[in-house]
């Protein structure tokens, strides 16, 4: 278990709400995994009863935390991504602790060997430089490997590739950072759910990374995550999970799916009304991947559908091409239409018109004050753990005379 001083911010109430949201997500994931298992009914019922007891305890803690003042101060904290980190991500010469390469000068030929060589529970950044190549081995980062930064040679140069058709990819924890790397799952659309990248890491950053797959491609499972200038492609629910995430200046590329399928960019899994989780897309572009654009019968494409009861997703100042269906959002179950929260704010492009959007109680056109709630600074509490060089705030924040930061 990491100490509070290692993984917290100075906002104790924010931290407690975040950790409790993560606990709720874990409980929901356990329940989801029980469905369809082959274990005996007696054993399954015992597990369900235990999960219900833990859920009750978590909900009791929620009630306590909600009564705390908003400005409750916690312990001293470490700013996970200072300006030095962001400058490190952008330099041409990588100052790495370890180098991985398939040939030539290197410390290791395997990414997993490099991960194992990293120190345990480190409060200092540990940089692994992965030279350009396609690495076809699965990698999992253990929970005791804190503060790992993986830097590649470019989004289309350093590629981590696999073909499992289940929940595979990365399990990350403890402020992991990835730069200039592509993760791909080569299992085709006929293989069904095939996760390319899963992240459980709190305060994780993905910068100039690619995530390529089809159904259920990117799985930001829980806690706080920030994706900047990344490229994501997929088909059905290809960004799904229950983390608190901001995607900023990312390129979203829906692909051609199987006949009869519809593309849904998001399937957010918020399951309780008090949970602080959700997806925020800011300053992104949504266009089709080449196979979708060139198709004579392109797959109908929607911004998302609600995976769980209180699903929450917003798109702000994002360009949407004409691949987006005018209705915008796709039904999962009609009972979620009044409990979900879908928001749009000052989006542009032929797919951004809200004139024909679905008329659900939970779909909203945001004003500037509402949009501010989903910025990096407020939704992720980014001022406490992200460098001020690393993100942009929306025009609404400029209008209220708060700072708007550009990377150098």
From TrEMBL:
The lineage of its organism: Eukaryota, Viridiplantae, Streptophyta, Embryophyta, Tracheophyta. This is pectinesterase. Keywords: Aspartyl esterase, Cell wall, Cell wall biogenesis/degradation, Hydrolase, Secreted. One of its GO terms (molecular function) is pectinesterase activity. Pathway: Glycan metabolism; pectin degradation; 2-dehydro-3-deoxy-D-gluconate from pectin: step 1/5. GO terms for biological process: cell wall modification; pectin catabolic process. Its EC number is 3.1.1.11. It comes from the Eukaryota. Residues 97-383 form the Pectinesterase catalytic domain. It is an enzyme of class 3 (hydrolase). PANTHER family: PECTINESTERASE. It is found in: Secreted, Cell wall.
């Amino acid at each position: 278990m990491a100490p509070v001083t290692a993984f917290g911010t100075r906002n104790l109430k924010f931290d407690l709400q975040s950790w409790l949201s993560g606990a709720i997500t874990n409980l929901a994931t356990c329940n989801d995994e029980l469905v369809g298992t082959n274990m005996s009914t007696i054993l399954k019922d015992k597990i369900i009863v235990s999960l219900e007891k833990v859920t009750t305890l978590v909900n009791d803690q929620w009630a306590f935390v909600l009564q705390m003042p908003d400005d409750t101060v916690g312990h001293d904290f470490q700013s996970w991504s200072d300006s030095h980190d962001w400058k490190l991500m952008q330099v041409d010469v990588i100052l790495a602790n370890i180098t991985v390469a398939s040939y030539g000068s290197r410390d290791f030929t395997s990414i997993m060997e490099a991960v194992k060589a990293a120190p345990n529970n480190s409060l200092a950044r540990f940089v692994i430089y992965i030279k350009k190549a396609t690495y076809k081995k699965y990698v999992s980062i253990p929970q005791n490997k804190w503060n790992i930064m993986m830097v590649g040679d470019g989004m289309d140069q350093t590629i981590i590739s696999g073909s499992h058709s289940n929940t595979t990819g990365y399990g990350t924890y403890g402020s992991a950072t990835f730069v200039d790397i592509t993760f791909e799952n080569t299992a085709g659309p006929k293989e069904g759910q095939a996760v390319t990248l899963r992240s459980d890491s709190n305060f994780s950053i993905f910068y100039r990374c690619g995530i390529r797959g089809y159904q259920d491609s990117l799985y930001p499972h829980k806690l706080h995550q920030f994706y900047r200038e990344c490229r994501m492609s997929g088909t059905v629910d290809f960004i799904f999970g229950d983390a608190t995430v901001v995607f900023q200046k990312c390129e979203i590329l829906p692909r051609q799916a199987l006949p009869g399928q519809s593309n849904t960019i998001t399937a957010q899994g918020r399951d309780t009304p008090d949970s602080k989780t959700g997806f925020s897309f800011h300053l992104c572009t949504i266009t089709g991947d080449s196979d979708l654009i060139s198709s004579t019968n392109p797959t109908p494409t929607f911004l998302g559908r609600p995976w769980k009861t209180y699903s929450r997703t917003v798109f702000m100042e994002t360009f949407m091409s004409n691949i987006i269906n005018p209705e915008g959002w796709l039904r999962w179950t009609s009972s979620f239409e009044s409990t979900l929260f879908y928001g749009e704010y000052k989006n542009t492009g032929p797919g951004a018109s809200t004139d024909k959007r679905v008329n659900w109680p939970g779909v909203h056109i945001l004003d500037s004050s509402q949009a501010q709630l989903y910025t990096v600074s407020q939704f992720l509490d980014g001022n406490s753990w992200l460098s001020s060089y690393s993100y942009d705030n929306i025009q609404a924040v400029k209008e209220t005379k708060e700072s708007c930061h550009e990377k150098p």
